[in-house]
Structures are given as C-alpha cells and as structure tokens.
Amino acid sequence: MDQQRQGISVVVPTLNRGSYLIDTLHDLLAQDYRPLEILVVDQSHGEDTKLLELVLGHCDLISYHKVSFRGLPLARNYGWQQAKYEAVVFVDDDIRCGPSLVAEHLRGLTRPNVGMVAGGIDERISSGDSSAPGQFNPWTATPQRGFGATGDCLVKHVPGGNFSVWRSVLQAVGGFDEALALGAALYEETELCLRVRKCGLDIYFSGRARLLHLAAGSGGCRVPDLPKYMGSLAHNRAILIRRHLRWFQTPIAYFRLLLLFISYAAHYHTLRVFRPGITGFLRGVQAAKQPPVCSRYTNEAHA
C-alpha cells in the first residue's frame, strides 16, 4: 500500500462552533495514527483567534480553509477534493473522540469490497434507540439510525457525524449531491450511500470507530424556521424517493411523507407546513431527474 493510501485525511466542516471545534481538533491531533491530515473547512461568518492560533501551532497536521460558501454538502465536496490522502474521514465539529478513531476507520475501509465505513456514535443525551444500525426502509424512504450499537456488521447508510469513504469512490459516484444543501441537508449521507451500494460496494459499521456527539446548542446548519425546515425536508425526501425507490414503493413513501407533515402540523398546531412542503416536494421531484450536483472547488484559502 502506497503512502497516499496509507494516510488519512479527516475533514471537519464547521460553522460558528467556537470552543466546540477547538476541543474536536485537540482530540484529532491526539490520534495515534500517522500519516494524518486534519482538513478544516470553515464556513463561519467571522474569524476565531484561538482557532487560528491552534492552526498555526500545528500547521504540519492541520490544513485550514476559510470558504465563502454555505452548505454541508458543499463543504464536504470541497474537503475531499482538497484532501491529501485517499482515505477520507468526515466528522462533525462538536464531537469528542479517543486516539484510535481514525485507525479504526482505516481498518474498516481496508476490508474487502468496502467503500464506506459508518462509525459508532454516543449521544450526550441517549435516544434509547436499540435498533440495528444503519438500516434503510425502501418502502417509506426512511433511514433508521441505531448507531449507538457496538460490534461490526454491514449496513445501508452512515451517520452524518462519523463516517469514512475512499476518495476514489466519491469520484466514481459523483460526490455529495449539492442539490440536498437546503436547510439542514437532510438525507445527504443516505442518498450518497444508496449510490455507493448501487455500485456494488459494501458499507461497513465499525462500533470501535466511535465518538461522542455533543449536539452543540448553537452554530451549525440548524433551521429554526418551521416552514423552511419542512420545505427542505420535502425537497430532499422527494429526491431520495424518486431517485432510489422502485415504482411500486413510491406510493407508500409518498403517503408516509404526507403523514409526517400531518404529524408536524398537529404537533405545532399550524397548517403553515403544507404550502412550503408541497413547493419543496415538487422542486425535489424535478431535481431528482438530474444527476448529482458536485462542484469543482479550487483552494480559496489555505493557512
């Protein structure tokens, strides 16, 4: 195995996360695997003096990129295109991890026929989900998480805050679909995984490639506006349904989406979810007819 394939690039998209990001980077700097690159894609509005000091103090390991665009799929496409190594790990900017995280990802990636690895996630507030990890219901287009599980197994999709993939696989399938960049970029990883599996590659869950997700209360790509959130949900779910479900599964998936809107409307006591939902859905149906959108990114800034 050549050095490029032995090394690991860790891509950390970030948006206004302050001390959370600093702690994340300290844990990544303490990884016991080398060669290692930590690639920070910073979409924040301002500059963080402490972050820049940390970058300058570890310029041999941290590759810092201040970008002008916004959107998680865009940041991830930018990250893997700038990555130095073939194995690329993606983590959130509000996590804590032990020193073996990236080594465990590489252990999973080097298994036969594996294109992606899903890592285990502990949540600061446990969800109590005891389901099998990384399942996908093709009748309702519903990804099921269960990533708090331990052990190793094959899965159908990965958690957004802890996964890895070969760069060559991303090139082959067309990268992350930037059409899903609306709102909180719901289903972005699931849609990518469905394309990877269509290529005949496996997705492997490694419970030992584990981290703690802190779920920071500020920053990130949250969408506090309910109608806007529902519009992006319907848009992205429509892409998932039209692009990846079989014709006889789509009516059930559409009905499940309608029930989801009714439940939101009932919970928040408002009908304002339906108009943006219908608009988002129709736009998503049109977007699904097009191939995934993956821009070619140049290095806008590199410290």
What do these coordinates show?
This protein is of the alpha/beta class and about 300 residues long. The protein has two domains: about 5-215, Spore Coat Polysaccharide Biosynthesis Protein SpsA, Chain A (Alpha-Beta Complex); about 225-290, no CATH class. Helices cover about 40% and strands about 20% of the residues. The protein has ten helices and eleven strands. Strands 1, 2, 3, 4, 5, 6, 9, 10 and 11 form a nine-stranded mixed beta sheet that branches. Helix 7 packs parallel to helix 8 and helix 8 (about 225-245) packs parallel to helix 10 (about 275-290). The radius of gyration is 19 Å and the shape is globular. It starts with a helix and ends in a 15-residue tail after the last helix. The model has no long low-confidence stretch (mean pLDDT about 95).
| CATH superfamily heading of the largest domain | Spore Coat Polysaccharide Biosynthesis Protein SpsA, Chain A
In DSSP terms, counting alpha (H) and pi (I) runs of 4 or more, how many helices? 10
Shape: globular
Helical fraction equals: 25-40%
Q: Kindly state the number of beta strands.
A: 11
Mean of all residue-level pLDDT scores: 93
From the N-terminal CA to the C-terminal CA, the straight-line distance is 29 Å
The number of domains: 2
Task: Summarize the helix and strand pattern as letters.
Answer: HEHEHEHEEHEEEEEHHEHHH
Structural class: alpha/beta
Strand percentage lies at 15-25%
**What's the gyration radius in Å?**
19 Å
CATH fold group of the largest domain: Spore Coat Polysaccharide Biosynthesis Protein SpsA, Chain A
Major pleated sheet: 9 strands, mixed
**Which CATH top level class of the largest domain fits?**
Alpha Beta
In the CATH hierarchy, the architecture of the largest domain is: Alpha-Beta Complex
Low-confidence stretches: none
